[in-house]
Amino acid sequence: MNDEVRAAAKACGVKALVTWTYDFTTWTDVPPPTPRLQAGDIVLLHFTPTLAADLDRALGAAKAAGLKPAALMPALRSAGLVP
To answer: Among residues 48, 51, 41, which one has the least CA distance to residue 72?
Structure first.
């Protein structure tokens, strides 16, 4: 993501670009360190064979931080960024 991408997206009428704070997907034999989540972080997961374990790690990190996971689309809708 850079200024060129942002400008191109804006020129196409894109109202918001959403990126993730942490990717919890395990791409190797060993899961990556689990980050400390904060309110507003966006977690990315992929449909891989490790999805269930990765989701458990993400939910555990949210619980450890006292956070409640929420879906992104309703927040974007309430901000008027998507129909």
So the answer is: 41
Looking up tokens 């006292």, which residue turns up?
A: 66
Which residue in the block uniquely carries the two structure tokens 């360190």?
33
**DSSP codes, 15-38:** ------SEE----SSSPPPPP---
- H helices of the chain, in order, are 3-11, 51-64, 72-78
Give the pLDDT confidence of 8-64 residue by residue, as tens digits. 999 999 988 999 999 999 999 888 899 999 999 999 999 999 999 999 999 999 999
Q: What residues pair up with 22 in beta bridges, in sequence order? A: 43
What is the 8-class DSSP label of residue 70?
-
Query: How much is the pTM?
Result: 0.78
Q: How far is CA 75 from the centre of its chain?
A: 13
Tokens of 42: 């966006």
